[in-house]
Amino acid sequence: MVSAVAAADDAPPAARPAARLLIGLGGLYVAQSVIGGVVFTGLPAVMRQNGASLGDIAFILLTVLPWSFKFLWAPAVERFRSPHGGVRRTRTTVAIFGTLAVCAILATALIGPTALGPLTVAIMVASFSSATLDIACDGHAVESVAGRDRGLANAAQVGGAYLGSAIGGGLYLVLLDHFGWRPSTLAMAAVLLVLAAPFLTAPDGARIDRADRPRQSLRHALKRPAVRSGLLLVGLFVLGQKWAMVLIGPFLIDRGLSLSTIGTVNGIGITALGLAGALGGGVVLRRFSVLGVMSAALAVQGVVMFALAVFAASGDVAPAALVATTLVSSGSLALGFVALYSDLMGRASADQAGVDFTLFQSMDAIVSLIGWRLVGLFGDALGFAACFAGSGLLALLALGLLPIVAGRNRGETDGHG
């Protein structure tokens, strides 16, 4: 992958149609989520099938940590990708870490699902490479996408996450069932190459960066009020949207839905609604304000959580009502996050876009993990009804505070174009 793009990074700047840029970015976002689907859905299932304990599976899932703490090495990645006074090397960066990710997936195919130690190392390399690739991809998106197209860019990001998860956590399991570990995992590696091709083979359009701009760093990011208020906005929005999501699957099981039914809902229904919400968000943001779309998403999520609380407290509830409520939640979640990340793109500085945007994403991951851990600790004692009702109250609290937080320092750009 590296040699294919070495010449492209030296090419003179070229104007690229928004559609081609968005297709290339979308392919990369799907590829990153394919890796996530393989690691967090496909791999645990096949490990369990091969006799792995839940402790072993939980150990493997620690490989999510690079996504939570990638902000620590984001400045180093951005200094390489976007050197002061030099030509931007986005495609070289994507090619390097994309190659590492593909090689790690190839290694898992050869290692097999029972060798826990080597498998963990390979998956950690894949997770680290994918998270690092995302730093470069987000930085390139912020630099290259025009303001009016930010909603579409974030639709590609959120929609790509849903589609990639469906491939890595859905199609991969089907292939495993029919063809076994090695052919199926090799097929996923091939899928990654295909998805990266549109970005790596497109005209680069690289341009020379200013030599006088500040050195990319976390300190510079955190000095900017727009970044600090953006981090607060992410935490608030995640608080209102995500904390009870981990309870929905177990709740549906307790209410008698079969694994196959839940799998169908997750693989087809939620993916379809998530994609619709993501793509719809890109269009909606051309007509409505970011704040309005985020507020609507929080309001819908609050209603959904209170509805689930009522369902949990009552007796028999029709399975169709449970499924419909879950699907509404998925669609509103996708729509809201398209709006959120569109707003965050505007807060990121063009001087170090990858660093700023990575901070926002890490805040999303860390707040989500904290909430899911708290729900896991206290969910059994409090019960589903109390947890869902509490999540509904958090959504309303976030809705009330959103106009205050979203409006803080929104106009300060510090070099953003």
From TrEMBL:
InterPro entries linked to this entry: AmpG_permease/AT-1, MFS, MFS_trans_sf
Keywords: Membrane, Transmembrane, Transmembrane helix, Transport
Signal peptide positions (record): none
Superkingdom, taxonomy of origin: Bacteria
Subcellular location: Membrane
One term of GO molecular function: transmembrane transporter activity
A GO-annotated cellular component: membrane
Membrane topology, as annotated: Multi-pass membrane protein
Pfam families in UniProt: MFS_1
Ranges that cross the membrane: 21-46, 52-73, 94-112, 118-137, 158-175, 187-208, 229-253, 265-285, 292-314, 320-341, 353-375, 381-402
Keyword Ubl conjugation carried by entry: no
Similarity annotation: Belongs to the major facilitator superfamily.
Record's protein name: MFS transporter
Species of the source: Prosthecodimorpha staleyi
Species classification: Bacteria, Pseudomonadati, Pseudomonadota, Alphaproteobacteria, Hyphomicrobiales
